[in-house]
Write a structure and sequence with these properties.
By secondary structure, the chain is of the alpha+beta class. The protein contains ten helices and ten strands.
Length: 321
């Protein structure tokens, strides 16, 4: 394992991941890596057993990513995404896996998108999966263990004071994504630091961000400014990537279940009661998910929808059931 390349890659993935979490909760979500090591099967098994939630995806060209979250960490992200206060414990028995998948799918995508924006390296992911009480998943280990996996423990904080701990595991093959020039610069900057002592956030920022010309300030203030600029720039880039994606929007007047016999009997002049009252708002769905409600209006002799209510994140997740 190249510890420096692995450290830069892990921080890059977590930066993209937390950028999406930041967008969900409407505030900056800082993180800090605590340790980095090559992961044997025993180390992986212990990591899987001690965490409450596992989010994983296999890369299309080989290798895999696994994000393990503590109960407190899983609660913090879920609460931030749904706008609800975090609960004392992560409820494994009643976990809404579809809702969790809707939250973590774009987060994992944000993690790999960081490298497309920074280095032009595209890492395609297969379907993201979410599970609770993971235990030792030997099939998942096989995907990660080619070549030897890297394990990084980290902590994060979500305003206003929530947060938790997690573990990122990824295939060692992804170290090659980091250019040799960045590895060389980081190695020189590290001054002989070992695998268990990864670079600090300020050191990574100094290596990967160019200094602003004509600006002189105290080192601590300069490092803070660079870190904030990097976070804001990454957030904007990740957001811009999805703004042009086209989605199907549908206004739903109502819905009804009918037996096949009645459907076959329909003809011109047939009237179907859709169970929708005249003064009830019409539902707006995007990709078959409820996001808003509104009133029907006429614009230039065409029907339109005036939005009167935006559905809360929790209701959006409930619509997936």
């Amino acid at each position: 394992m190249n510890a420096v390349a692995a450290d830069i890659f892990a921080r890059g993935f977590l930066t993209g991941f937390m950028d999406v979490v930041s967008a969900l909760c409407g505030g900056s979500v800082p993180f800090e890596t605590k340790s980095l090591q090559s992961a044997s099967t025993d180390i992986l098994s212990n990591a899987f057993r001690k965490q409450a939630l596992v989010v994983h995806a296999v890369a299309k060209d080989g290798g895999a990513f696994v994000l393990l979250l503590s109960p407190q960490g899983a609660n913090s992200v879920l609460a931030a995404a749904t706008g609800q206060p975090p609960t004392a414990e992560f409820d494994l028995a009643n976990a809404d896996l579809l809702g969790l998948k809707e939250i973590f799918d774009p987060c994992m995508g944000g993690g790999v998108s960081h490298f497309k924006e920074k280095y032009g390296k595209v890492i395609g992911l297969e379907k993201v999966e979410v599970a609770v009480s993971p235990g030792a998943d030997n099939a998942l280990f096989s995907a990660i263990l080619e070549p030897s996996p890297v394990l990084v423990d980290f902590g994060f904080s979500i305003p206003p004071g929530a947060g938790g701990e997690g573990t990122l595991v990824f295939s060692g093959r992804f170290e090659a994504v980091i250019p040799e020039r960045d590895v060389a610069a980081a190695t020189s900057k590290a001054g002989g630091k070992g695998v268990g002592n990864p670079l600090s956030q300020d050191e990574i920022s100094d290596i990967l961000k160019e200094s602003e010309p004509g600006t002189e300030m105290e080192p601590a203030k300069a490092a803070k400014k660079k870190s904030e600029a990097h976070s804001n720039e990454a957030y904007s880039r990740n957001l811009d990537m999805v703004l042009d994606i086209r989605l199907v929007a549908t206004a739903r007047l109502g819905r009804i279940e009918m037996p096949i016999s009645e459907i076959l009997a329909l003809g011109p002049g047939s009237i179907i009661e859709v169970g929708h009252l005249v003064d009830e708002p019409v539902e707006l769905l995007v990709n078959d998910k409820l996001i808003a409600r509104g009133d029907v209006v006429v614009v230039d002799e065409k029907f339109g929808l005036r939005i009167t209510e935006i559905v809360s994140p929790r209701e959006r997740i409930e619509s997936l059931r």
